[in-house]
Every structure is written in C-alpha cells, then in structure tokens.
Amino acid sequence: MRMRRIAWAAVAVSALLTTVNGQRAPRPDLETAMLAWDRGDYVAALTAFKTLLRAQGGEQWLEPIALQTGELFQTREITPDGSNPRFSQDGRFVAYEAGAGASRVTRVVEPGAAMRVVAEVKGYSLAFLPQGDRVVYLKLQPAEELTRAQAELDQAGQTPARLAAQLRLSWLQYKHGDIATRNLSTGQERVCPTEGLLKSAVVPSADGRLLYLTGVREDDPSRSDIYKVAVDCDHPVAVTKEPGYKTGVVVDPKGSFLLYGTVASNPFARPAEGGGGAASAGRPAGGGGRGGMGFGASGSFAILDLKTGTATAVTGASPVLSADGSMLAYVSRSGGETSVLEPAPVAEPVAEKKPASAKPRRAGSRKPLLAVLGAVVLCVAALTLPRSLGIDIPFLSDLQIPSLSEMGIEIPFIGDLFKSEPEDSAGGLKLALVPEGIAAEFVANSSAGMLCVVKGQVRNSYNHPRSGMRVTVKLYTAGNTVVKTATVFAGNVLSNQELSSLDLIAINARLKNSSGASNMNVGVKPGRSVPFMAVFSNLPDGVDEYSVEVAGSTP
After folding, report:
1. Concatenated DSSP letters of 302-318
2. Angle at 392 between CA 390 and CA 397, to 5 degrees
3. pTM of the model
4. Separation of alpha carbons 54 and 64, rounded Å
5. pLDDT in tens, 346-382
C-alpha cells in the first residue's frame, strides 16, 4: 500500500465568545486554551482554564469551559442494567427495558421526581402516545410453551444450542405478545388481543388515535404486512396491499404517510423444530422484538401514502425523516460509493384532469387575447427589467415584484442577459477549501487498525454567517476508482492520541457534531475558516489518492 504522509498543518480558528453582558473573551487566552483542548494538549488547556477561572470575574468563563470539558451537565445513572431507553414527547418520563427473554420488563421513571418508578410492565417495545401520560407496548401473555422455551435457553448456556433456543423463544414472543395500552396516571390497562398474528414494534400515529405494527398471519407465512389498530382496541387491519415481506415502521409526524422496509425473506419465520437455526424461510430479525424490528438489509424501502394506499418503492437504506416530515434522507450505494439523498417524501399531487366529455369553450377571436397577452408581457417587463439591471426607481423598486426568470417567462436573446445566479440549495456555492491547509496521513488505531485521516480547512465566502459547513472526502485506488466516501461537518478535529486510542463509535460520534467543537461551526462569519477532519477505516489495498470538495451549509 502506498501511503502519502503529509505533515500536520496546525490551524488557528477564531471563535467569537461573548458573555451575557456583552464583554469580549480575553484573546488569545480562552481561544488558545480551546484550540489546545481540541488538538489533545489537555495539560496546557486545563492550566489555561484554571487561570481564567481563578482570575477576577472568572465566573463568566465557567459555562464555555464546562461545555468544552463536558462538565456543565450532570449525569445520573438510571439503572445498571437497562436497554432501549426513550423519552416521552414532553420529556417528563423515561422508559427502559430490563432483563431478557420471557422475564423482560419495561420500567417508566420520572427524572424530575428522583427517578420515581411510575410503572413496570411485563413486556417490551414500549412507546409513548402523544398525550404524554399514556403508553403502548407488547404485553407477553403467560403460555406454557413460552415458559418451556425460556427454560431451554437458560439450560443451553454458551453452547451452540443457544442460538436455536434463542430463535424459538423470539418467535414465541412474537406469537404471545398482545398490544396493551396503559394510563400512567391511573394504572388502568387495556389489552387488544391479536390471536393468530405474529407481531413486533408498535408505533403510534401522529395524533395518537391509531397504532401501527409489522405482522404476519401465522396461517399465511407467504407475506408480512403493516397493520393498524385503533388505540381503543379493534381488529388489526392491513394497510399494505403489495406482496412480499415488510419490516419496520416509521410514521410521518403529520400522519400523511409512513415508511417501511422490504426484505426478501419472512422476518417472522418459524425456527426449525430441534434444528440449529431458523426455518428455510429465514431467521427472525430484531432480537426478539427488542427495540422493534428495524429496516432490512436488502437496500430498499417503501413510502406508503395513507390517504390513497399507494406505496412507492425506493432503492436505499437507513431512511430518516425531518422533524416536520417535509423531507426524507436516505443512504444510496452505487459500487463503492455511498451518497446521502434528500428527495421529497411524497410525490406532488397530479393536476386535476377534466373529463373527456367536457369540451373546451370556443374563443370568439384570437386577436384581442393576443393583444391582452402582449400588454401583460410589456407591463411585466417594465416592472422587472429595471430590477434585473440593478436600476433603482423610487417607489417602484420597493415593490416585491418577482423577476422574469422567477415567473418562468423567457424572452429570446434578451432573457440571457438577466439570468439569475446558479441555484444554491445545498449551501455550498460560496464555500471554499483552503488549499494549503489540506493534508492526509495514516494513524494506527488500537482496535480498528490503520486509519486514513484527511484534514483541512473550509472558508465561508458568503457575505453572511453560515452554519453546519460540511465537506465530502473520497479515497481512490489505482485507475481513479472511488473506494471510500465520507461527508463530515467542519469544526470537529481529533488529536493523534485520540485517533489512536478511541474506538470507531466514539470517533464517528465526534465527527457527526453539526455544530462543531465549542460551536465553532455555528454562525461562521464571512471570510472565516473552520477545520475539518474525515476518518476512514477498513482500508482496501492500494489507497493512494484522495479528493476533497465542499458539500454544503445552512444560513
């Protein structure tokens, strides 16, 4: 492997830090200390922090320093043995699962009341309804075969038989789990029987009146579907009509559509009796329903319009919705390249068509219509051309009148003179890389082996502050073949010591901070530069080139 070693380029990034009363932070003391912390020189950073805090008026630096060191917010342990935590929408309650198998329980605690246990239910996949004080979960009903399967799993220990025992227990949990709703204030529960339906992961609708879940009829394993159930209990009704196997549910916050994954094999397949694995249809996914069954690994999912019942297939993985449900992002892989795409989640409505029998009215004369149209065009040109030429006319210039191009009007030859600037929806048109700051090196990590680290600076060349600046880095092998791609946010830089000692999960978590360390990627002023870093692992042989390009930013 041919390695390109380029010396580290130290980058001094200015950050505007002001106190509540508007006083400017002493420069370069605090700024230098922050940069020392970011590059891993903790002794120098902590010494400077200590000096600042002990100086007169040092209390004003407590918050920015505590934010940098991670000591501003208190951490309290809820339980030494828990999993799948989640908050209620109002932040009042926290739920987590404890135990495993048939003995698994879900606890709901109230952090604001000294972690008071509000409820403990025998089940899993708990979700908070929008009302705040109601929850829904899958309640395990007593069954002899469930108890027997749990005993077999306990006896299996860490032997090869454990996998088969775990699969049998997981399948029985799909079978014997019923939908239950619970009022946290009164403790009143209502169980919705779903006999004959294998199920996992209950997801409430946006208004909390419906529940969605993935399931398959035990007597028809040829397909799985997404079902809906009224929160007050009724018979589950399939909302999907397409054949094949579905898994996982993500509901649009506005309640207009939902997402589900598509897989090639039955995610609820019954394990072979006495065998060492699942039946030929496939192994159940989701670990016994823990946290719900996720989107499959087939690289495709579907968008279901809940109003029309129409499903649209999408080739991609890991779909996520924006908070308001207006945008959908997902990962698309082509060869060795990975991209993040942002299409509109639901197609625009088709324009209304008139019935074929409706005949258009006959115009009395075309000349008056053409004359009126010509007059309209001349008026629009008179109003918009001065603005396009940069000419200010009193009173007229103050009117909010769109340009010709914004109105979709094209005038041959003349229209070319008034073309607007290129579209900049990604916010990267006026970001610029600092060529002399770009470097690459290889760092040995204690757990992941050799890492390729590409770093540099990106400058805000807009005439206004920008946030969330990001760049895309690609690695190439011989023949200009892209083998690795990563898009990272600026403002996140790790020291060589951290790159060597931290695991990949911790490294990637640091690099995904859109605000950057110490918020240095928020409100970046025009002309200012922010450092970036991309880290690649599992390097193929022959990596010897890389490229960096701006990806975008937000106002």
Report:
1. EEEETTT--EEEEE-EE
2. 110
3. 0.50
4. 15
5. 443 333 333 333 333 333 444 454 454 555 555 555 5
Pairing assessment for the beta strands 123-128 and 116-121 based on DSSP bridges? unpaired
> How crowded is residue 383: how many other Cβ atoms within 10 Å of its Cβ?
16
Q: What range does the domain containing 43 cover?
A: 29-69
The pLDDT value given to residue 358: 37
From residue 548, alpha-carbon distances to 59, 275, 344, 532 in Å are 41, 52, 28, 11
- pLDDT tier for residue 396 given thresholds of 50, 70 and 90: very low
Q: How far apart are CA 274 and CA 272, in angstroms?
A: 6
Highest mean pLDDT among 98-107, 242-251, 290-299, 415-424: 242-251
- Provide the mean pLDDT of the chain: 76
Q: How far is CA 493 from the centre of its chain?
A: 22
Give dist(CA 437, CA 460) in Å, integer: 15
Instruction: Say if residue 186 is in the same domain as residue 331.
Output: yes
How many other C-beta atoms can be found within 10 angstroms of the C-beta atom of residue 298?
15
Same domain, 119 and 219: yes
Which runs of consecutive H residues, i.e. helices, occur in 423-531? 496-501, 504-511
State whether 231 and 171 are in the same domain.
yes
275 falls within a domain = yes
Residues 63 and 176 in one domain: no
Tell me which amino acid residue 150 is: Q
- Name the nearest CA neighbour of 178 among 209, 215, 204: 215
The answer, yes or no, to whether residue 418 has pLDDT greater than 50, is no
Does residue 151 sit in the same domain as residue 218?
yes
42 and 106 fall within a common domain: no
Q: What is the pLDDT of residue 314?
A: 87
Residues 452, 509: contact at Cβ < 8 Å?
Answer: no
- 212 φ, ψ (degrees, to nearest 5): -115, 145
Cis-peptide, bond into residue 28, ω within 30° of zero: yes
What are the φ and ψ backbone dihedral angles of 511, each rounded to 5 degrees?
A: -75, -15
Percent over 70 (pLDDT), the chain: 73
What confidence score (pLDDT) does residue 487 get? 92
Residue 311 structure tokens: 């499903």
